[in-house]
Amino acid sequence: MTKRVVVVGGGIAGLAAAQRLLERGLDVVLVDRGERTGGKLRTGTLAGGPVEQGAESFLMAGPDGGPSAAVRLAGAAGLAGAVVHPTPARAAVAIDGGLRELPSGTLMGIPLAEDPGVPDVSSDAPLLPPGGDLTVGELVRPRRGDAVVDHYVEPLLGGVYAGRADRLSLRMALPKLAAAAERSHTLTEALRSAVAAPASRGPVFGTIEGGMSRLTDAVTAALPDVRLGSTVRELRRHGAGWRLTVGSTHDPGFLDADGVVLAVPAAPAARLLSTVEGLAGVPLEYASVALVALALPATKLPELSGFLVPATEGFAVKAVTFFDQKWAHLHRPGVTLLRASVGRHGDEQQLQRTDENLVALVRHELAVLLGVDALPDPVAGAVYRWGGALPQYTPNHQDRVRTLRETLRRHPAIAVAGAAYDGVGIPACITSGWAAADAVLEGLGE
């Protein structure tokens, strides 16, 4: 008899887990409380064309230099030919009233070369003990200076995590640098070792022509049993497997399974696990963000893909993408398309504004940042809000995840997946989903 696995959560990690389980011949049921799958990968329409409401791109290469998990999943979904790449336009950072191109010869904004004004003192022991962790700021500030962290490192981290350099785990944010720091006595040595790791040739980033929803929709379409608008309220052991309580509290239904993948954020995962003796989730804070997309009448912008705004500059806007300059396939005659990001961890009060007020704030700040009196009135605009979207990994996060997974292995065929555990990038979430599926398969003896 074919064994059944229920995947809770229809984001990219849950979809990847379901795809892997289906490939292995299991009966797969995917359950999601929303009206559609895809999670934070969602494509909308603005000014007659596609616009990403969430994540816009993925890394093309994996840690080993081969194709990333996102590239492989796109191929499996029949979309290998739909992968497109950004233009050569460079990004900038807003500092002291001007836009400076992001410097080359860096790793996440950290200069590879030592600054004579900030000596990179060698230590007797490696920078990190085996398995140790610290914040990005703790490693970089003493060895490259506050200006490097505040002007370059933190804005780049903020663009990915909406987080702070002095709170984010080095192992989660910069795993190659953390590994190199275990065998290096200076930051310069660690940086050179980290960038010397195998790398692929060709473009660094890619996206799906027509929108990221094409990828999630294609994976969803291959699944035989997708149940949307269904909230999983409880998880309990049932016989040799599991019973999930699904639906409203007044009229609950039950779904029995041999195995379960929880591909949901940390808090709902912890709530479901709490009903199983000996299980608990991973404590994790999240940052909220809002993305403001504007379609302007054809407007001359700096020849950049966009720019970052350090928190020290005092603006609510933390990043801007000039979409039609970064992605040639998004160019529309007579229209200039851009998207601004607002919201940093611990500083979310600007997100309390109404959509109209937030659009007005973004237009005003962009005019100041671009050095113009005002931006033209948009022909179309939209605000996409992502409450509690980006996990904030504090040091030793990997240890907490490892402890959880070791505990899960004492129970039959249950695993967790997603950004809460293994990283926020699209390839990281897909890899997390595949790993969770493999863990469940192992637990089922498949």
Describe this structure in words.
It is a single chain. The protein is α+β, with helices and mostly antiparallel strands. Among the domains are: 4-50 and 62-84 and 212-283 and 393-443, 3-Layer(bba) Sandwich (FAD/NAD(P)-binding domain); 106-195, Orthogonal Bundle (protoporphyrinogen ix oxidase, domain 3). The protein is built from 14 helices and 22 strands. The protein has helices at 12-23, 69-76, 136-144, 146-161, 170-173, 175-181, 187-195, 213-221, 266-273, 323-326, 355-370, 397-408, 419-422, 426-443, and strands spanning 4-8, 27-32, 43-46, 49-52, 58-59, 83-84, 91-95, 98-101, 106-107, 110-111, 205-208, 226-228, 232-238, 241-247, 252-257, 259-262, 285-297, 306-308, 317-322, 335-342, 380-392, 414-416. The strands form 6 sheets. A 7-stranded mixed β-sheet has the order 8-7-18-19-20-17-21. The chain has a 5-stranded parallel β-sheet with strand order 12-2-1-16-22, with helices on one face. A hairpin with a 2-residue loop joins β7 (91-95) and β8 (98-101). α2 crosses α14 (426-443), α3 runs antiparallel to α4 (146-161) and α6 crosses α7. It is globular and about 65 Å long. The two termini are 12 Å apart. The mean pLDDT is 94.
Radius of gyration: 22 Å
The proportion of strand residues reads: 25-35%
Class computed from helices, strands and strand pairing: alpha+beta
Compute the average pLDDT. Answer: 94
Number of helices: 14
- In the sheet with the most strands, the strands line up as 8-7-18-19-20-17-21
Largest sheet entry: 7 strands, mixed
- Give the overall shape: globular
CATH overall fold name of one domain: FAD/NAD(P)-binding domain
Spatial gap, N to C terminus: 12 Å
For the record, the CATH architecture of one domain stands as: 3-Layer(bba) Sandwich
How much helical structure, as a percent, in the residues? 25-40%
Q: What is the CATH H-level superfamily of one domain?
A: FAD/NAD(P)-binding domain
Which segments are poorly predicted (pLDDT under 50) over 5 or more consecutive residues? none
Enzyme class: oxidoreductase
Cofactor: FAD
Pathway: Porphyrin-containing compound metabolism; protoheme biosynthesis
Family: Belongs to the protoporphyrinogen/coproporphyrinogen oxidase family. Coproporphyrinogen III oxidase subfamily.
